[in-house]
Amino acid sequence: MSATGKRAVADLLDDDGDAHNSLLHSQGADGHRPPKKQQTSTPSSKSYLSTLSYPSTSTPILKQTPFQQPSQLISFSYTPEYVLEFTDSALRYFVDPPVGAKLDYGYERWVRKPDERGRLDGLLKAISHIRKDPMRAPNLPEIGLVSWRGVMTKMLAAPYEEREGWDLNVMFVNGTLYLEEHLTEARLKEKNDMEPRQRRQSYFGYAFESYCTSETPTRQNGPPSSGAPFGWGGDVNTNVQWCSVVRTKLGDTRMVIGGEVDCIRGRYTGKTDSFVELKTSLVIRGPHDEGRFEKKLLKFYLQSFLLGVPEILVGFRTPAGVVTTTQTFKTIHLPRLVRGKPDAWDPLICLDWGHRFLTFLRKVVQAGDDVSSSSVWRVRFVPSSGVSVELLSGQPDIDEVVNGEERVGFLPRWYWEEVAAHQQTPVKQTTATAATLTDWQL
């Protein structure tokens, strides 16, 4: 890609294949605060609070947790009215952004989709659609986990998260874990009532997407309408989304993950190899800024890696929202940018933690004599401590999850009944893409 004023944030380090030592594990008793030592509690039918301690980030990993290259199952679009349709109407194509793009343009016309509960409904509609399609159904694996890419990113990034905790709601139905982010009404109000300065800065990322995308593979260079600046791709409506649903595998857990894709480069083939992720970040003015940016790269990396996005374009902007430079990063190269640095992150630690967490979670939800397919567990992550998992038994807690909607737990009733009738059976699998593919290694 021809980037405007390319500026290397850090030189790529040689991939020297450093050996990694094993991460030690130990077990301990249940507790109401996740212990800081490496230990896990033993789930039992008498106690529904279980804990998994924070992983060590100082001990390298010897054995890599396998991660299967994501393969797209289906895509879908949300219309300007936020109606889901199984078309590619919202797909956008990448085009080079203009020099000096002003990211505050169109702010007053921004149609902002309010933050809502992290429901899985769109992803579940896609799974249902696949199961009913005789051409697609054979590609749908026995599913061990269903979740949005954002939830999985938070979960895998936990070993390096120092400030923000998170809560998840979990259900276990016919052998499948369903994970949604739990947001209280107070938290939703906080997210929707942003301070004006924070709200404007959040808009900058969406405006950058408009400058970088087009409805056609090449930008139409006709006369700008309504005084729009050159390169403006259209006013921002965050109801409009193009989403990809992929199958992948972490360790022994087969996963179906969905997430929004910003745009594609060139011709769309139905695969993930043309996907492009777009990001903005403040210009780097010195070592301190560089260190902050390199920490952000972990989430950039995980977001793209989980969905099979091979390329990330970052627009570096001023505090006022003027893009000064752009830089293209290959997703698989990001770990090399930070390797050997004082605060380096290691994706192998993230994947090892993710595998341990999902193994632990599956054991917890399978324990107990009085749990059912309608049971809901609450996972709580506390930075520098670990995670706790608790079965929700009180009616107020259940009511908060259901939120007065037609649901069983947090699953739509129609889907819960469909799965109950389906009773997951083995499906003949196509040959899986191994985790050792040369183009999708860590």
Automatic annotation (TrEMBL):
Keyword line: Hydrolase, Metal-binding, Nuclease, Nucleotide-binding, Nucleus, RNA-binding
Metal-binding keyword on record: yes
Cell compartment(s), UniProt: Nucleus
Assigned GO CC terms: cytosol; nucleus
The protein's required cofactors: a divalent metal cation
GO biological process: NAD-cap decapping; nuclear-transcribed mRNA catabolic process
A Pfam family matched in the record: RAI1
Compositional bias of kind Low complexity: 37-52
GO molecular function, one term: metal ion binding
EC class (word): hydrolase
Annotated region (Disordered), positions in chain: 1-52
All residue ranges annotated as the RAI1-like domain in the record: 68-416
InterPro entries reported in the protein's UniProt record: RAI1, RAI1-like_fam
Catalytic activity reported: a 5'-end triphospho-ribonucleoside in mRNA + H2O = a 5'-end phospho-ribonucleoside in mRNA + diphosphate + H(+); a 5'-end NAD(+)-phospho-ribonucleoside in mRNA + H2O = a 5'-end phospho-ribonucleoside in mRNA + NAD(+) + H(+); a 5'-end (N(7)-methyl 5'-triphosphoguanosine)-ribonucleoside-ribonucleotide in mRNA + H2O = a (N(7)-methyl 5'-triphosphoguanosine)-nucleoside + a 5'-end phospho-ribonucleoside in mRNA + H(+)
EC numbers, comma separated: 3.6.1.-
Entry superkingdom: Eukaryota
Family recorded in the similarity comment: Belongs to the DXO/Dom3Z family.
PANTHER family: DECAPPING AND EXORIBONUCLEASE PROTEIN, DOM-3 RELATED
Job description of the protein: Decapping enzyme for NAD-capped RNAs: specifically hydrolyzes the nicotinamide adenine dinucleotide (NAD) cap from a subset of RNAs by removing the entire NAD moiety from the 5'-end of an NAD-capped RNA.
Listed name of the protein: Decapping nuclease
